[in-house]
Specification:
single chain, alpha/beta, five-stranded mixed β-sheet, 10 helices, 14 strands, binds zinc ion
Protein backbone atom coordinates (compact mmCIF):
# COMPACT_ATOMS: atom_id res chain seq x y z
CA UNK A 1 0.00 0.00 0.00
CA UNK A 2 1.31 3.45 -0.88
CA UNK A 3 -0.26 6.68 0.30
CA UNK A 4 0.37 10.20 -0.87
CA UNK A 5 -1.32 12.47 -3.36
CA UNK A 6 -4.52 11.07 -4.80
CA UNK A 7 -6.20 7.76 -4.06
CA UNK A 8 -4.67 4.84 -2.19
CA UNK A 9 -2.31 2.75 -4.34
CA UNK A 10 -1.84 -1.01 -4.00
CA UNK A 11 1.34 -2.61 -5.37
CA UNK A 12 2.07 -6.27 -6.08
CA UNK A 13 5.77 -7.05 -6.56
CA UNK A 14 7.55 -10.10 -7.93
CA UNK A 15 9.53 -11.55 -10.83
CA UNK A 16 6.80 -10.80 -13.40
CA UNK A 17 7.11 -7.08 -12.58
CA UNK A 18 5.23 -4.62 -10.44
CA UNK A 19 1.47 -4.26 -10.79
CA UNK A 20 -0.17 -1.11 -9.44
CA UNK A 21 -3.79 -0.47 -8.61
CA UNK A 22 -4.14 3.25 -9.41
CA UNK A 23 -1.32 5.70 -10.07
CA UNK A 24 -1.94 8.80 -7.98
CA UNK A 25 -1.27 12.34 -9.18
CA UNK A 26 1.55 12.97 -11.66
CA UNK A 27 3.31 15.54 -9.48
CA UNK A 28 4.17 12.72 -7.05
CA UNK A 29 6.27 10.87 -9.66
CA UNK A 30 9.58 11.39 -7.74
CA UNK A 31 8.16 10.16 -4.44
CA UNK A 32 6.31 7.26 -6.05
CA UNK A 33 9.39 6.27 -8.08
CA UNK A 34 11.44 6.09 -4.89
CA UNK A 35 8.78 4.20 -2.94
CA UNK A 36 8.43 1.67 -5.79
CA UNK A 37 12.18 1.14 -6.16
CA UNK A 38 12.44 0.61 -2.38
CA UNK A 39 10.10 -2.37 -2.88
CA UNK A 40 12.48 -4.10 -5.31
CA UNK A 41 14.31 -3.78 -8.63
CA UNK A 42 11.55 -5.12 -10.93
CA UNK A 43 10.12 -2.84 -13.59
CA UNK A 44 6.52 -1.61 -13.53
CA UNK A 45 4.55 -3.75 -15.96
CA UNK A 46 0.85 -3.28 -15.11
CA UNK A 47 -1.34 -0.40 -13.98
CA UNK A 48 -5.00 -0.99 -13.20
CA UNK A 49 -7.22 2.12 -13.03
CA UNK A 50 -10.13 1.74 -10.62
CA UNK A 51 -12.00 4.63 -12.37
CA UNK A 52 -11.27 7.76 -14.42
CA UNK A 53 -10.85 10.48 -11.73
CA UNK A 54 -7.62 12.45 -11.99
CA UNK A 55 -6.48 11.60 -8.46
CA UNK A 56 -6.31 7.94 -9.57
CA UNK A 57 -5.22 8.31 -13.23
CA UNK A 58 -3.09 11.46 -13.47
CA UNK A 59 -0.01 9.24 -13.03
CA UNK A 60 -1.00 7.12 -16.07
CA UNK A 61 1.19 9.01 -18.53
CA UNK A 62 4.49 8.62 -16.70
CA UNK A 63 3.75 5.07 -15.54
CA UNK A 64 2.99 4.09 -19.15
CA UNK A 65 6.21 5.80 -20.28
CA UNK A 66 8.24 3.51 -17.99
CA UNK A 67 6.51 0.37 -19.25
CA UNK A 68 3.13 -0.10 -17.57
CA UNK A 69 0.28 -1.53 -19.59
CA UNK A 70 -2.90 0.20 -18.44
CA UNK A 71 -6.09 -1.79 -17.81
CA UNK A 72 -9.49 -0.26 -16.95
CA UNK A 73 -13.28 -0.50 -17.25
CA UNK A 74 -14.37 0.42 -20.79
CA UNK A 75 -16.20 3.51 -19.47
CA UNK A 76 -13.00 4.72 -17.80
CA UNK A 77 -11.33 4.54 -21.22
CA UNK A 78 -14.17 6.61 -22.69
CA UNK A 79 -13.99 9.26 -19.96
CA UNK A 80 -10.22 9.63 -20.25
CA UNK A 81 -10.49 10.07 -24.03
CA UNK A 82 -12.96 12.97 -23.97
CA UNK A 83 -13.59 16.26 -22.20
CA UNK A 84 -15.40 15.46 -18.93
CA UNK A 85 -17.53 17.99 -17.16
CA UNK A 86 -18.00 17.46 -13.40
CA UNK A 87 -20.88 19.70 -12.33
CA UNK A 88 -20.13 19.44 -8.62
CA UNK A 89 -16.67 20.88 -9.18
CA UNK A 90 -17.80 23.23 -11.99
CA UNK A 91 -14.79 21.98 -13.92
CA UNK A 92 -14.01 20.50 -17.34
CA UNK A 93 -11.28 17.85 -17.42
CA UNK A 94 -9.42 17.74 -20.73
CA UNK A 95 -8.82 14.43 -22.56
CA UNK A 96 -5.74 12.58 -21.30
CA UNK A 97 -2.63 12.37 -23.50
CA UNK A 98 -2.44 9.31 -25.77
CA UNK A 99 -0.03 7.38 -23.53
CA UNK A 100 -2.33 7.80 -20.54
CA UNK A 101 -5.34 6.12 -22.17
CA UNK A 102 -5.83 2.50 -21.00
CA UNK A 103 -4.96 0.03 -23.78
CA UNK A 104 -6.93 -2.87 -22.35
CA UNK A 105 -10.58 -2.07 -21.73
CA UNK A 106 -12.83 -4.41 -19.79
CA UNK A 107 -16.52 -5.03 -20.45
CA UNK A 108 -16.59 -8.07 -18.14
CA UNK A 109 -14.71 -9.37 -15.10
CA UNK A 110 -11.22 -10.68 -15.77
CA UNK A 111 -8.52 -12.47 -13.74
CA UNK A 112 -4.80 -11.76 -14.17
CA UNK A 113 -2.14 -14.23 -13.03
CA UNK A 114 0.95 -12.34 -11.96
CA UNK A 115 3.78 -13.13 -9.57
CA UNK A 116 2.04 -16.32 -8.52
CA UNK A 117 -1.05 -14.38 -7.45
CA UNK A 118 -4.56 -14.13 -8.88
CA UNK A 119 -5.81 -10.58 -9.38
CA UNK A 120 -9.56 -10.62 -9.90
CA UNK A 121 -10.79 -7.45 -11.60
CA UNK A 122 -14.54 -7.06 -11.01
CA UNK A 123 -16.68 -4.36 -12.61
CA UNK A 124 -19.24 -2.60 -10.42
CA UNK A 125 -22.61 -1.40 -11.62
CA UNK A 126 -22.57 2.45 -11.60
CA UNK A 127 -21.69 3.55 -8.02
CA UNK A 128 -19.05 6.28 -7.53
CA UNK A 129 -18.84 6.62 -11.36
CA UNK A 130 -20.02 4.34 -14.17
CA UNK A 131 -16.53 2.88 -14.59
CA UNK A 132 -15.55 1.55 -11.15
CA UNK A 133 -13.80 -1.76 -10.66
CA UNK A 134 -12.44 -3.62 -7.63
CA UNK A 135 -9.30 -5.74 -7.46
CA UNK A 136 -9.16 -8.87 -5.29
CA UNK A 137 -5.75 -10.33 -4.46
CA UNK A 138 -7.27 -13.75 -3.93
CA UNK A 139 -4.51 -15.69 -2.15
CA UNK A 140 -3.58 -12.78 0.13
CA UNK A 141 -7.28 -12.08 0.89
CA UNK A 142 -6.93 -8.36 0.08
CA UNK A 143 -9.69 -6.37 -1.62
CA UNK A 144 -9.13 -2.92 -3.17
CA UNK A 145 -12.61 -1.44 -3.52
CA UNK A 146 -11.76 1.83 -5.31
CA UNK A 147 -13.82 4.91 -4.46
CA UNK A 148 -16.90 2.88 -3.55
CA UNK A 149 -15.51 3.16 0.01
CA UNK A 150 -14.00 6.19 1.77
CA UNK A 151 -12.73 5.09 5.16
CA UNK A 152 -13.91 7.42 7.92
CA UNK A 153 -14.84 10.32 5.59
CA UNK A 154 -17.87 11.32 3.53
CA UNK A 155 -17.46 10.15 -0.07
CA UNK A 156 -17.66 12.11 -3.28
CA UNK A 157 -20.29 10.66 -5.63
CA UNK A 158 -19.87 11.71 -9.26
CA UNK A 159 -23.33 12.22 -10.73
CA UNK A 160 -21.84 13.71 -13.88
CA UNK A 161 -20.36 10.36 -14.94
CA UNK A 162 -23.02 7.99 -13.67
CA UNK A 163 -22.54 7.78 -9.90
CA UNK A 164 -25.46 7.69 -7.45
CA UNK A 165 -26.15 7.12 -3.76
CA UNK A 166 -28.17 3.98 -4.48
CA UNK A 167 -25.26 2.67 -6.55
CA UNK A 168 -22.83 3.42 -3.69
CA UNK A 169 -24.99 1.48 -1.23
CA UNK A 170 -25.34 -1.45 -3.66
CA UNK A 171 -21.54 -1.47 -4.15
CA UNK A 172 -21.04 -1.41 -0.37
CA UNK A 173 -23.34 -4.42 -0.02
CA UNK A 174 -21.37 -6.23 -2.74
CA UNK A 175 -18.10 -5.37 -0.98
CA UNK A 176 -19.42 -6.67 2.35
CA UNK A 177 -20.57 -9.90 0.68
CA UNK A 178 -17.11 -10.38 -0.87
CA UNK A 179 -15.23 -9.92 2.43
CA UNK A 180 -14.75 -12.05 5.52
CA UNK A 181 -13.68 -10.91 8.99
CA UNK A 182 -10.09 -11.58 7.90
CA UNK A 183 -10.11 -9.69 4.59
CA UNK A 184 -7.92 -6.60 4.35
CA UNK A 185 -10.00 -3.96 2.60
CA UNK A 186 -8.26 -1.05 0.84
CA UNK A 187 -10.52 2.01 0.41
CA UNK A 188 -10.03 4.57 -2.37
CA UNK A 189 -9.50 7.29 0.24
CA UNK A 190 -9.01 7.45 4.00
CA UNK A 191 -6.95 5.20 6.26
CA UNK A 192 -5.63 2.70 3.69
CA UNK A 193 -5.84 -0.59 5.56
CA UNK A 194 -9.39 -1.29 6.63
CA UNK A 195 -11.68 -4.18 7.41
CA UNK A 196 -15.23 -5.45 7.15
CA UNK A 197 -16.41 -3.87 10.43
CA UNK A 198 -15.28 -0.38 9.34
CA UNK A 199 -16.76 -0.90 5.88
CA UNK A 200 -20.09 -1.82 7.48
CA UNK A 201 -20.06 1.44 9.44
CA UNK A 202 -19.61 3.31 6.14
CA UNK A 203 -22.48 1.42 4.51
CA UNK A 204 -24.77 1.97 7.52
CA UNK A 205 -23.94 5.71 7.50
CA UNK A 206 -24.91 5.96 3.81
CA UNK A 207 -28.21 4.17 4.47
CA UNK A 208 -29.03 6.30 7.54
CA UNK A 209 -28.41 9.60 5.75
CA UNK A 210 -30.36 8.46 2.71
CA UNK A 211 -33.36 7.73 4.97
CA UNK A 212 -33.13 11.20 6.52
CA UNK A 213 -32.89 12.89 3.13
CA UNK A 214 -35.75 10.80 1.74
CA UNK A 215 -38.00 11.94 4.61
CA UNK A 216 -37.21 15.60 3.90
CA UNK A 217 -37.85 15.11 0.18
CA UNK A 218 -41.18 13.44 0.90
CA UNK A 219 -42.11 16.45 3.02
CA UNK A 220 -41.56 18.59 -0.07
CA UNK A 221 -38.31 20.31 0.94
CA UNK A 222 -36.23 21.86 -1.82
CA UNK A 223 -32.56 21.06 -2.25
CA UNK A 224 -31.56 24.16 -0.26
CA UNK A 225 -34.07 23.41 2.52
CA UNK A 226 -32.86 19.81 2.67
CA UNK A 227 -29.25 20.96 3.14
CA UNK A 228 -30.36 23.52 5.78
CA UNK A 229 -32.16 20.78 7.76
CA UNK A 230 -28.74 19.08 8.30
CA UNK A 231 -29.78 15.46 7.68
CA UNK A 232 -26.17 14.34 8.25
CA UNK A 233 -25.83 16.01 11.68
CA UNK A 234 -25.57 12.80 13.72
CA UNK A 235 -22.66 11.63 11.55
CA UNK A 236 -20.70 14.84 10.96
CA UNK A 237 -18.27 14.56 13.89
CA UNK A 238 -17.03 11.20 12.65
CA UNK A 239 -17.36 11.49 8.85
CA UNK A 240 -17.45 15.18 8.00
CA UNK A 241 -13.85 16.20 8.70
CA UNK A 242 -12.37 15.95 5.19
CA UNK A 243 -12.91 17.58 1.77
CA UNK A 244 -16.51 16.47 1.32
CA UNK A 245 -18.32 18.58 3.93
CA UNK A 246 -21.89 17.95 5.19
CA UNK A 247 -23.68 20.29 2.69
CA UNK A 248 -21.73 18.88 -0.25
CA UNK A 249 -22.44 15.34 0.89
CA UNK A 250 -26.16 16.04 1.40
CA UNK A 251 -26.42 17.29 -2.17
CA UNK A 252 -25.23 13.91 -3.42
CA UNK A 253 -28.54 12.43 -2.26
CA UNK A 254 -30.61 14.57 -4.50
CA UNK A 255 -31.71 13.99 -8.04
CA UNK A 256 -29.20 14.00 -10.86
CA UNK A 257 -31.48 16.35 -12.81
CA UNK A 258 -31.31 18.93 -10.00
CA UNK A 259 -27.55 18.68 -9.66
CA UNK A 260 -27.09 18.98 -13.41
CA UNK A 261 -29.75 21.75 -13.66
CA UNK A 262 -31.64 19.85 -16.35
CA UNK A 263 -35.05 21.33 -15.57
CA UNK A 264 -38.08 19.83 -13.81
CA UNK A 265 -37.67 16.25 -12.66
CA UNK A 266 -39.49 13.74 -14.84
CA UNK A 267 -39.06 10.88 -12.40
CA UNK A 268 -37.15 7.66 -12.12
CA UNK A 269 -38.13 6.33 -15.53
CA UNK A 270 -36.48 9.31 -17.20
CA UNK A 271 -32.85 8.57 -17.85
CA UNK A 272 -31.70 12.04 -16.77
CA UNK A 273 -33.78 12.11 -13.59
CA UNK A 274 -32.62 9.34 -11.31
CA UNK A 275 -35.07 9.77 -8.49
CA UNK A 276 -32.57 9.30 -5.66
CA UNK A 277 -33.65 9.88 -2.09
CA UNK A 278 -37.30 10.40 -2.90
CA UNK A 279 -38.67 7.01 -2.02
ZN1 LIG B 1 -12.99 9.10 -7.48
Amino acid sequence: MLEGSGGNIAVLTGPDGKALVDGGIGVSRPQLTKALSDLGPESITHLINTHWHFDHTDGNEWLHSVGAKIIAHENTGKHLSRIQRVEDWDYNFLPSPAGAIPSELLSANRTLKLNGASLELKLYKPAHTDGDLSVTFAEADILHVADTYWNGIYPFIDYSTGGSIDGMIAASDANLAAATENTIIIPGHGKPVSNKAELKEFRDMLVAVRENVAALKKAGRTLEETVAAKPTAAHDAKWGQFVIDPPFFTKSFTRACEIRKLGPCQGATHELCQDEGRR
